[in-house]
Design a protein that fits this description.
This protein is 65% helix and 2% strand. The protein has helices at 2-28, 32-46, 50-62, 66-76, 98-114, 121-134, 138-151, 158-183, 188-191, 193-196, 198-205, 209-224, 230-243, 273-279, 285-293; strands spanning 254-256, 262-264. It has 304 residues and is mainly α. The longest helix has 27 residues, at 2-28. A two-stranded antiparallel sheet has the order 1-2.
Length: 304
């Protein structure tokens, strides 16, 4: 009897993993209807939980099927306490619906009960929406990249999406400047860690370097004072350098080699890069690049 129970349990566990893996693969390949079926099969086999319902909600949101998205999202977020869903670009299509306001209020209330660090709630909401909007087209851009890798040419639908992304970046920057003029530069201590990153994402994704140069000092100051993201500071600093045809400092900006593999742009004194990264709390570059772009960085590091 024990062997039978174990065999059944292993079969169920395997079915769950296969359904989840299949759902993820289908989503990554743009087959959204099939991905929903795979995720729902997982729910049927393994039962309802946060991740399974959240996956379904995100796909329904991407497809602008709002009623279904809210149905699964409310199930997923029943006992959820982090603010991550409020910055998830997959859910941006839901933000113009009055039902989204209730989700915002619920998650912020739950989060405050366990981590009472957000002072300005309304500013936090606006910044989180800024993050969502900044990345709202990322899924579609990823699909365009997959198309390019497969066929060595951009799909025709890439061009309007790329133009829309530029327009969103410009709109977000104007919104960001107005928010900062009214509320001041956001810090971890008054809006929380997720929301405080909003201006950094907007600035990094802007098309003009003068924007990054304009704010780089305050970004660095907040990084060093543990009031802002040092990871985003490093990305922005390196982007300024690369765009000026200079060697980057932290290894955060990438290009493609002849085989269309991602590689880091040239790094100044690469033997000292880990020391610079450590000074602002970043992990060794070898570890970061392997995880981020599967690149083997093998420059021996020197300490001075």
């Amino acid at each position: 009897m024990i062997k039978v129970v174990i065999s059944i349990s292993l079969f169920i566990f395997s079915s769950i993993l296969n359904s989840q893996k299949k759902g993820n693969e289908l989503r990554d390949n743009g087959e959204l209807e099939k991905a929903i079926k795979a995720y729902k099969k997982e729910i049927k086999i393994a039962g309802s939980n946060y991740e399974r319902n959240y996956n379904v909600a995100c796909i329904y949101a991407i497809m602008y099927k709002k009623d279904s998205a809210f149905h699964y999202l409310n199930i997923a977020l029943k006992n959820h306490k982090t603010l991550w869903p409020l910055s998830d670009n997959d859910l941006y299509p839901l933000t113009d619906d009055k039902r989204w306001l209730a989700i915002e209020d619920k998650l912020l209330k739950n989060n405050q009960l366990i981590d009472n660090k957000i002072i300005d709630i309304e500013y936090t909401k606006k910044l989180l929406r800024l993050i969502m909007k900044d990345q709202v087209l990322d899924y579609h851009m990823d699909m365009a990249k997959k198309y390019f890798y497969k066929l060595s040419k951009a799909p025709h639908w890439y061009y309007p999406i790329a133009q829309m992304k530029k327009e969103i970046a410009s709109e977000n920057y104007n919104t960001m400047e107005k928010l900062i003029a009214d509320k001041g530069w956001p810090k971890y201590s008054n809006v929380g860690k997720i929301a405080a990153d909003a201006p950094l994402l907007v600035i990094n994704h802007h098309t003009d370097d003068h924007v990054r140069v304009k704010y780089i000092d305050i970004i660095k100051e907040n990084c060093l004072n543990n009031e802002g993201s040092c990871l985003e500071f490093a990305k922005i600093k390196d982007r300024i350098l690369v765009n000026a045809n200079k060697e980057q400092m932290y290894g955060m900006q990438f290009t493609y080699d002849d085989q269309r593999n991602l590689i880091p742009f040239p790094i100044q004194n690469p033997e000292l890069v880990d020391q610079r990264r450590k000074e602002i709390g970043l992990e060794p570059l070898k570890k970061y690049l392997k995880r981020k772009i599967n690149y083997d960085f093998n420059v021996a590091q020197t300490k001075i």
